[in-house]
Amino acid sequence: MGEAFAPLLVPRPGSLSTPFRLHQEASLWSSVGLVASHHLLSPVTHVTFSPVAPYDVAASSGFSVELIGSRAGNRLRSLARFRDTAYSPGYKPDGKLLVAGDSGGGARVFDLGSRAVLREFKGHKGPVRSAMFSSDGRRVMTGSDDSVVKAWDLATSRLLLSLKDANDYVRCQAHSPASQHVWMVGSLDRKARLYDLRSTNCLFTLDHGYQVDDVLILPGGARAITIGGPEVKIWDFFSGGKMIHRLGSHAKAVTSGVADVAGHCLATAGLDGVVKVHDLDTFQAKGRMRFASEILSLAVSSDGVKYAAGMADGTVEVRSTKTSSKHISSVPQSTARRQREFEGYGRGFEKMRMEEKGPKPGSRRYFERGTRAKPTEDQDFVMKDYRKAELKDYDKSLQKFAHGDAIDQAVATRSPSVVISVVQELLTRGVLTSALAGHKQSSLDSILGVIQRNIRKPLYTNRLAQLLNAILDVYGAELGKNIAVDRKLGAILSAVRREVNECHDLMQLQGAAEAILSSSGS
């Protein structure tokens, strides 16, 4: 029997700061609690969360990749098809496939449902210590100790390109949230390089000063972070790849770092066994988490709630910024209730306790107790009310694979959050372009209206840009033939230009403020 169709999870609409306000308060980090822990036999070199709920953890340790439940810390399955040490597990964006490298110079793609090896890529002359999917899920990127990064086509296993600018072992990679063609590579030659994969040109070379163990590109694609040695450095591409800040708060080498989905909060981990959290707007420390061993890898779940750390002693710990009540209370509710019931015995309250229990199930008094009788916890079993989830119109269309109707119905709600959720689902299914084909002029005009009103909102910019690109791919030949559509496209172009100009003005203001502050400090 197939699983029931799950309706889309639409994020609550609100200002950009609303979902991340908690991350900017120190009280949040004081309430972080341990929710899962699992011990492996070898050091945990890499950890990563599944991009889909319930956000299980993949950890590379020894000759296998272990999949660990983020709720109870139990081992879900083990991927042990490696003849050498396994490294760097990475999920496909839909969470169904996983890639991992090994010290033999290869990389494997696993089907998480059957644990079967679907693809195996060979071509490196050294251990593959970094492997991950591209943001569109169609390519696999592998970085090796042979100083080369290779891009492979997932469908055909064909080698697409090689990046050979590094002069030492490649240790880390990152893709840009703003473009699937922008890629960043870090290596032990103390440099991180930003590439355009369409031309394999190196756009920027960032000199970190220490071996680069981890790299990040923040949402928007304008800033990057390099991690290695005792320092964490933040770079700005809009100012020509200039370093804008340096963080050096760890006592030992920093090994890994993660940023939240909005790029407002950065968490870094190091060999000192401490995770430190900084606000990327003010670069002020927000909190810390202490662990029992050296941390080799750090990951954050897609919802920004759970953090996983892989340690040198083989431990994987998952901590959450939201601890449920069942983890807070160490005494079960049923035990506490029995203790309260026992208090009266031996002091003359036995008869009263027996009378409070009510008639015995199955007796005549039990069936004649009346309609006002309430069920008791220990004598009656209360069935839960399993109500079928109510599906919205766009959910029903997605269930029937009527993708074009789903877009129209999402636009009809006039909620950008619903439109973004439907676009994300169509991107995951790989049918966004086909879903846009065949729309009437009025429908296309409504879709462009949503883009025009929300393209400047950072929470929606990325997905709306992908939606606009898909529209131009489908209807590019029709441009200039419809006045209403041309006006909407012109308004979108004007909005994008205003946003770019305002960003440049703010950067100039920031530069002037920094000059004033530096001169006053000297």
Automatic annotation (TrEMBL):
<dbReference type="Pfam" id="PF09384">
    <property type="entry name" value="UTP15_C"/>
</dbReference>
<keyword id="KW-0853">WD repeat</keyword>
<feature type="repeat" description="WD">
    <location>
        <begin position="121"/>
        <end position="162"/>
    </location>
</feature>
<dbReference type="InterPro" id="IPR018983">
    <property type="entry name" value="U3_snoRNA-assocProt_15_C"/>
</dbReference>
<keyword id="KW-0677">Repeat</keyword>
<feature type="region of interest" description="Disordered">
    <location>
        <begin position="354"/>
        <end position="373"/>
    </location>
</feature>
<dbReference type="InterPro" id="IPR019775">
    <property type="entry name" value="WD40_repeat_CS"/>
</dbReference>
<protein>
    <recommendedName>
        <fullName>U3 small nucleolar RNA-associated protein 15 C-terminal domain-containing protein</fullName>
    </recommendedName>
</protein>
<dbReference type="GO" id="GO:0045943">
    <property type="term" value="P:positive regulation of transcription by RNA polymerase I"/>
</dbReference>
<dbReference type="InterPro" id="IPR015943">
    <property type="entry name" value="WD40/YVTN_repeat-like_dom_sf"/>
</dbReference>
<dbReference type="InterPro" id="IPR036322">
    <property type="entry name" value="WD40_repeat_dom_sf"/>
</dbReference>
<feature type="domain" description="U3 small nucleolar RNA-associated protein 15 C-terminal">
    <location>
        <begin position="376"/>
        <end position="515"/>
    </location>
</feature>
<dbReference type="Pfam" id="PF00400">
    <property type="entry name" value="WD40"/>
</dbReference>
<dbReference type="InterPro" id="IPR001680">
    <property type="entry name" value="WD40_rpt"/>
</dbReference>
<dbReference type="GO" id="GO:0005730">
    <property type="term" value="C:nucleolus"/>
</dbReference>
<keyword id="KW-0539">Nucleus</keyword>
<keyword id="KW-0698">rRNA processing</keyword>
<dbReference type="GO" id="GO:0006364">
    <property type="term" value="P:rRNA processing"/>
</dbReference>
